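Person: I keep going back and forth on a fold encoding question. Show me how you would write down a chain together with its backbone fold. Please set it down just below, with no commentary around it:
Helper:
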Amino acid sequence: GLTNYWGYNPINWFMVEPRYAATADPLGELREAVAALHAAGIEVLLDVVYNHTGEGDGQGPCLAFRGLDNASYYRLDAEAADGYANLTGCGNTVDASHPRVLQLIMDSLRYWVEVVGIDGFRFDLAATLGREPLGFDKGAGFFDCLKQDPVLAHVRMIAEPWDIGPEGYRMGGFGPGWSEWNDRYRDVVRGFWRGDEGLLPELAARLLGSADLFEHQGRRPWSSINFVAAHDGFTLADLVAHEMKHNEANLEANGDGHGHNLSWNNGVEGPSDDPAVLAARARDVRNLLATLFLGQGTVMLAMGDELGRTQQGNNNAYCQDNALSWLDWATADTDLIAFTAELAAIRRAHPVLRRRHFLHGSVAAADGTPDVQWLKPDGTALEPDDWHDPEARAILLALAGDAPTEIDDDGHPSLDARFVLALNAGREDRELHLPPGDWSVRLDTSGEASTRSLPARSVVLYRQEARR
């Protein structure tokens, strides 16, 4: 049957969900898991829901806060039919501006850090937590409490920067120290590879870490959490195999889940045994992964996308505690796993692919080459008309790793190789003219690239050794 598999309707902010445990000691299991991950050099972040509870709307059960002090814990709305403000889409809205509610949230966060060892948090519908009586405020009490807390001021904070209330879309509106889920990155990358028109300016901004959204506050590229797919929505494999959502198994007449997914199916809706369709889908998945891993910002990959997991077109599997949601290691795409691992290794090895400051082409290498350039496949710089050409489907991002853009931890210039990241979402190969020098293909999603040709529907990373 259907169940609250994702767990996004909490009742107790201090409890581990016992259904996820294998023993009668879920807290002990979690602490042991966190310790093991720490020993492997992996930080653990917790996805937390403080914006609403499982008590639902005015017709919901009385399980916790409603019975303690309904008017303090929840935002009420005298004009609503049930008396509750519903800024979350979940029936109720926690009032994080109330001092006692705020105190409880802070106590809960400290508990997970101090008792369990959690390294940071992703806040579901975080805009709700920054709402004061007059609306969202990045200086709200919630944010002030986090900044002054001796424990919480030093952990990682990630916002889902929106809710469904008035002016609820707050992308780029969280302060220094915060990272944010960047849905504008998601949408433009999907749209570009789907073949949508006129996306080059938006794509360029997102590939360089979204300075337009974050730099004005003195924030860094890591503030942008770049993703193409998440738990909420299509898996990566389904994104290139379904133009429509298929949520019938949720028993809501396929009315749940987003209808605007910027997805495509490569000619066949859903499962196919056509080798050409399967090859096109696999290539598109590689293109999306390469775009994600080789841009500036913070990479977020949904678990299972690296092994080709499908939900059979269900883009809202919140209630599916069954094979539709589970990871099936027996059917894992080992080639895709290896490809993803190679992308991660390349990114880890080259600081020019993960700069700590935004790139604007204002710093040059010794030979005068700017640290970043945007080029056409013919090797010339993009002119204003090129940026707005609705037919343009190919673009080159040239990175001069030998430009002294940054200083490393030892006080020396952080020097690297030079790279050209070439993306061609078009249906035709393009003749290629790389900048002067000896170049080699470092990564190719098509298996057909050369230093003179950029294949159709491909991402190619070209490398030139640094000039020291």
In short: The chain has a mean pLDDT of 97. The longest strand covers residues 394-400. The longest helix spans residues 275-293.
